[in-house]
Design a protein that fits this description.
Blueprint lengths: L1 H19 L8 H21 L11 H19 L11
Helix pairs in contact: 1-2, 1-3, 2-3
Amino acid sequence: MHYVWVAIVGLVVGAIARFVLPGEQKMGIILTSLLGIAGSLIAGFVGQSMGWYAADQPAGWIASVVGAVVLLFIVQKLRGGGSSGSSGTA
């Protein structure tokens, strides 16, 4: 049952991150959920390394969304997305 809640929370966090970040992200529901889960893990790791969270304490909602937005931004930049389209010659 714990994994179901992780997936649901990941989906909500990923959806909020996709809504907050401008541009079009071509992701399905599974990738959106994985984005939210990864954002939460990143936020938890950063928060623990900076002393904001204890070792067994998960990241909060806002930190999870911020982590997912940062991850989505990095993925967009690596993909080259968000540009004004292709300027190929015909």
